[in-house]
# Entry
Amino acid sequence: MKTTINKVRNYLNQEVTIGAWLANKRSSGKIAFLQLRDGTGFIQGVVVKAEVNEETFKLAKGLTQETSVYVTGTIVEDTRSPFGFEMQVKHIEVIHESVDYPITPKEHGTEFLMDHRHLWLRSKRQHAIMRIRNEIIRATYQFFNDNNFVKIDPPILTATSAEETTELFHTEYFDEEAYLSQSGQLYLEAAAMAFGRVFSFGPTFRAEKSKTRRHLIEFWMMEPEMAFVDHEESLSIQENYITYLAESVLKNCQLELNTLNRDLDKLNNIKAPFPRITYDEAIQLLKEKGFDDIDWGDDFGAPHETAIAEHFDKPVFITHYPASIKAFYMKPDPERPDVVLCADLIAPEGYGEIIGGSQRIDDLELMEQRYDEHRLTGDAYNWYLELRKYGSVPHSGFGLGLERTVAWFCGVDHVRETIPFPRLLNRLYP
Ligand code: 4AD
Ligand code: MG
# Structure
């Protein structure tokens, strides 16, 4: 019977065959322990000299790292391993021998591992991170589908910028100039006027010369946009969504969290409601914490965000930023037009801004005024302005950075490990 490692529990005390790679091996004169992986998981195969023919034992002892094999044997319980099962190997068939696999069990430097990302993905740690990423994606679709959102796919090639114009990737579009999408938001606003509640989940691009542990050039963003939803209601949807993600990962990724030695208390703590402070209060808090360099009107850097996050034991919303440091489309607070109805969600443990969101300007005149102030000229935005002409309604939306969320949930330091093939300031290979 052919099966996969994640299903072996169904074959207790039965003989099965698994297609796998040899991740690692230990052996003595009488026994060989094979660490086998097949993509669905890891299992130990035990080859006992006295129980197999001479040829099989010799083959097992000589197996090299990453050789692909079909292994046949009996599945038994193994209470010592976190996985709970092992295979008593009877027979091994080599599919392809791997010679001089470059990533050995010894320590390698980060640049070396990044150069071998196509192989590094096979390691237990990377496998755990990608599985958690997959669970976050799965749970995202589940949450938004359960809440009656329609998935809408915005274009990647665009004629407009949606965020900072200085961070655009330029490309040729026949005889026009085009940019790679920084955010699907503007298109999602159009879709929200057609479908009420929509979301997108796709790659976005920022030609940002930032070399930090939180910045990628190409990253995946989850963006909901909601008609008839104001700033406050949007915050409660955001915290419910994040809570649902944490619950799903805790429930469905126990082995992976274990592999990563993740502190589960930290994840159990991610439960709505999340604390909220205004930008004004955040400035006050920073001053109390000894940040003398920050003044009203300045944007927060990573050290500021980390200091604010440390003050709370949960993710925290910072709301009502000055209009001058936020995007053109954010709606001013009617009671105080120098600040906008927006929030950034800051994760604990130094993971920084996970979500950026706001209520959008729904008034045509004000939007036109903002266009002038931001020098966004030309006809490319006409369609966006027209959304404010024909039955404009209050609406809000937000964007969650997938890789920062994965880094946070996994407890890994740098976003480069949270996407299969990271695009960084100095890296386009592999
Ligand atoms: O705050 P940002 O720039 O917001 C927008 O793009 C809005 N248009 C979203 C919306 O309202 N629909 O980006 C949203 C999130 C950030 O909070 C962060 O998590 C992530 O995207 N992000 C990045 N992640 C990795 N690398 C980068 N260079 C990122 N820039 C933003
Ligand atoms: Mg932001």
Q: What stands out?
A: The two ends are 37 Å apart (CA to CA). Residues 162-163, 183, 185, 206, 208, 215-216, 219, 221, 223, 353-357, 397-399, 401, 403-404, 415 surround 4AD (ligand 1) (CB under 6 Å). The longest strand covers residues 15-27. The chain has a mean pLDDT of 97.
